[in-house]
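// run 5 | inverse folding | seed 20
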């Protein structure tokens, strides 16, 4: 990446979507600064995957931030007393907001990403949200993304200065996966050389390494690979 490449902050969880999002950012010519969070998630093994993905991709920097969202719980991903829903098929996944939704998680993560982007003088933030194959998370919807981007341009020095000049918004929140199915995301990532064996998408892994195979994330991921007539290279529990 040349010194003239624009910088971008990419939220990198260590899962399939965020790894694909990082690859897209690099394809589009950005110098990537990857941002991950240790927030008390039961699937904290994804952070090891995030580190491997960032190293393989050769990002400019990979930052892991401690953000104790588990302190107040409210989600099966951060509260060990709550149970992660499991199903035998994708059809078992409901359309309501699931208990795996972490209250305000994307808002908190994007706010921190926005602060880092200001320091880096980066004008682009990438997040791998998807509104088609997910169970109705409120902070994965296009209207939420548009609202956060508007707020970002009101709340930052670069945004205010751009508005005073009468130019386009300075801060851009990029969601390249938002209108794609899981199968389409996988095809895109494979074309960009993403090593999906390094990713972990499971909400409730066994020993922090083996995917359970039956949570919503696992079922949607496996469906995506099956629709591409491929086997998922991630390791699953028996």
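// decoded
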């Amino acid at each position: 990446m040349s010194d003239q490449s624009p910088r971008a902050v990419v939220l990198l969880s260590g899962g399939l979507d965020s790894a694909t999002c990082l690859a897209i950012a690099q394809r589009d010519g950005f110098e990537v600064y990857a941002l991950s969070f240790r927030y008390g998630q039961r699937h904290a093994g994804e952070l090891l995957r995030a580190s491997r993905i960032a190293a393989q991709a050769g990002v400019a920097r990979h930052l892991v931030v401690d953000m104790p969202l588990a302190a107040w719980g409210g989600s099966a991903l951060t509260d060990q007393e709550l149970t992660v829903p499991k199903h035998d098929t994708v059809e078992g996944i409901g359309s309501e907001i699931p208990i795996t939704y972490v209250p305000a998680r994307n808002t908190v993560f994007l706010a921190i990403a926005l602060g880092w982007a200001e320091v880096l003088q980066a004008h682009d933030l990438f997040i791998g949200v998807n509104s088609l194959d997910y169970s109705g998370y409120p902070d994965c919807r296009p209207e939420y993304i548009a609202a956060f981007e508007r707020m970002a341009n009101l709340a930052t020095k670069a945004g205010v200065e751009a508005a005073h000049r009468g130019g386009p918004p300075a801060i851009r929140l990029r969601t390249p996966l938002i209108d794609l199915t899981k199968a389409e995301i996988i095809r895109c990532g494979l074309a960009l050389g993403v090593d999906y064996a390094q990713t972990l998408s499971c909400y409730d892994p066994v020993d922090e390494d083996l995917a359970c195979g039956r949570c919503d994330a696992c079922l949607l991921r496996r469906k995506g690979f099956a629709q591409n007539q491929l086997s998922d290279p991630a390791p699953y529990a028996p």
